[in-house]
Design goal:
- This protein has 405 residues and is α/β, with parallel strands linked by helices.
- The protein contains twelve helices and eleven strands.
- The strands form two sheets. The protein has a nine-stranded mixed beta sheet, sandwiched between helices. The chain has a two-stranded antiparallel sheet with strand order 5-6.
- Helix 5 packs across helix 9.
- The two termini are 23 Å apart.
C-alpha cells in the first residue's frame, strides 16, 4: 500500500495550558491560551490559522467561537467527537483538508474541565443527563469507561494469567517519567505495592492507581505542509503516516467478534506500518494511550510490539523505561501528567523529536540534556528519530500515528 503523503506534512507548533484540578476558567479561555501557545511555538500569528479541528465533548467549546476570539477567518473547521482515538485521526483529517485545498494551516485543539466540570464518570458540577445509549448501560453499572472496558480486560487476565502486579508496572514506569516532568500533575514515583494497595475501582482489573488522572486543561497541535514548515520557527516534525479510527468488526458490538481481548490496533497497526514503510524496529519512542494501565498492555500486543498475552512481559522487561530501548509515555501520560484525550502524548513525542523536552536539566531550553533519568532529572531520550502514538477510544476503535524528525 503506497502512500504519496509520507513526510509531506508536519507538526509545526504545540502548546498547552497548565494541567490543574480546578482551573476556575471556561473551556473557551483555556482553548485560546493553548492555541496562542502553539502558534507562538510555531512562529505564527493567530490570523495565520485558517483551519480548525477539535475533539468536542463534555463542556468543550466550538471552533467557530474561537475564531472570533482569535480574529481569524477560517476556511475550514469541524468539531468531532469520538473519545481518545481522536487526536491521531484529527491529524489525518487536517492533512486531508490541506491536501484538498480547503485551508493551509490547521489548529487541532481539545479543551476540557475534566475534573471541575463534566467528569467522564457522569458526576461533577455539570453531569450530563442520561439519554440515548446510556439508557441501556448506566442503569446496569456501566457508567464509566473502565466499567465498560472491564469485559475485555478481565477476559485477558483469565486467558493469559495477568496479575495486578503486572499492570502496576505500567504505572510505575509512567510515574518515574513524570517525576522528571515539571508540568506533570502527579510527580511522585510510586511502587507496585502502592498501586495494588490502592482501593479497587473495578475488580479484578483496576485499582485507583491503575486509572488515569482527571484534570482541567487545553492542548493544541498545529499542522501545515512540510514545505511551509521549513520557514517556521521550529525544526519540522514530519508526519510519516497516520491511521485514524480503525474499528473491530462489529464496531460497538465488538464483543460478538472473538476474541474479545483483541482491540482495534490489531487492524490499524499493519496499515500504519505499511503506509510509513517502516517496522517496529524503527520506532524509538512510543506514546500509548493510558486511560488505564490495561490499555497499554492490550495495545502493545495489538500493534505487534509483542505477541498476544506477552504485553505483561514486554512491560516487565523494562523496555518502556527511560534509558532502555523504547521508552513509553515519557511525560507520564494520562496516568501521571494529565488527561487530555491523547493530545499530550503527541505533544510530548513532537518535543522528543525536536530534542527539546522540558525537564529538570539546567540547560534544556538550549537542547542540552544530561540523560540522567534519576528522579528530578532528565526525560529527553537520546538520538530519537521516529516516534509512534497509539490512540484508544474503546476496545473497538483506535487510531495511530508515526512521526519522524
Amino acid at each position: 500500500m503506497e502512500s504519496t503523503l509520507k513526510d509531506k506534512y508536519s507538526i509545526v507548533g504545540v502548546g498547552e495550558t497548565d494541567y490543574t484540578r480546578g482551573s476556575g476558567r471556561s473551556t473557551r479561555a483555556l482553548a485560546i491560551e493553548a492555541i496562542r501557545n502553539a502558534t507562538a511555538d510555531a512562529g505564527l500569528k493567530m490570523q495565520d490559522i485558517d483551519g480548525m479541528l477539535s475533539y468536542h465533548g463534555g463542556d468543550s467549546v466550538n471552533s467557530s467561537t474561537l475564531a472570533y476570539d482569535m480574529g481569524a477567518q477560517l476556511n475550514f473547521y469541524m468539531d468531532c467527537s469520538g473519545g481518545g482515538s481522536s487526536t491521531e485521526a484529527l491529524i489525518g483529517l487536517a492533512i486531508g483538508a490541506i491536501e484538498a485545498g480547503m485551508c493551509e494551516t490547521v489548529a487541532i485543539f481539545r479543551s476540557m474541565n475534566g475534573y471541575s466540570q463534566v467528569r467522564i464518570g457522569g458526576t461533577g458540577a455539570r453531569a450530563a443527563p442520561v439519554s440515548g445509549s446510556g439508557l441501556t448501560t448506566r442503569p446496569y453499572g456501566l457508567a464509566s469507561a473502565v466499567q465498560s472496558f472491564a469485559f475485555s480486560f478481565t477476559r485477558h487476565m483469565m486467558e493469559y494469567g495477568v496479575t495486578s502486579e503486572d499492570l502496576a508496572r505500567v504505572k510505575v514506569a509512567h510515574s518515574n517519567h513524570a517525576s522528571n516532568n515539571p508540568k506533570a500533575l502527579m510527580k511522585q514515583r510510586v511502587t507496585v505495592d502502592d498501586v495494588v494497595n490502592s482501593r479497587w475501582i473495578v475488580r479484578p482489573c483496576a485499582h485507583l492507581l491503575d486509572c488515569c488522572l482527571e484534570t482541567d486543561n487545553a492542548t493544541c497541535i498545529i499542522v501545515t505542509s512540510a514545505e511551509r514548515a521549513k520557514d517556521l520557527k521550529q525544526k519540522p516534525v514530519y508526519i510519516r503516516a497516520v491511521q485514524g479510527r480503525s474499528t473491530k468488526p462489529g464496531g460497538d458490538f465488538h464483543y460478538q467478534h472473538a476474541p474479545i481481548t483483541r482491540v482495534a490496533g490489531h487492524y490499524a497497526g499493519p496499515r500504519l506500518f505499511d503506509l510509513a514503510d517502516m517496522s517496529h524496529d524503527d520506532i524509538d519512542v512510543t506514546g500509548c494511550y493510558d486511560a488505564f494501565t490495561y490499555t497499554v498492555v492490550l495495545q502493545f500486543e495489538a500493534y505487534g510490539f509483542c505477541g498476544p498475552g506477552e504485553g505483561k512481559d514486554y512491560i516487565k522487561s523494562g523496555i518502556v523505561n527511560l534509558g532502555d530501548k523504547r521508552p513509553n509515555n515519557t511525560s507520564g501520560g494520562h496516568l501521571c501528567e494529565a488527561y487530555t484525550h491523547g493530545m499530550n502524548m503527541v505533544i510530548e513525542n513532537t518535543r522528543q523529536l525536536r530534542g527539546m523536552v522540558d525537564d529538570y536539566c539546567p540547560d534544556w531550553q538550549n537542547g542540552n540534556h544530561t540523560y540522567d533519568y534519576s528522579e528530578g532529572g532528565c526525560r529527553q531520550v537520546q538520538d530519537v528519530n521516529v516516534t509512534m502514538n497509539m490512540g484508544w477510544a474503546s476496545p473497538a476503535t483506535g487510531s495511530a500515528l508515526i512521526l519522524r524528525r
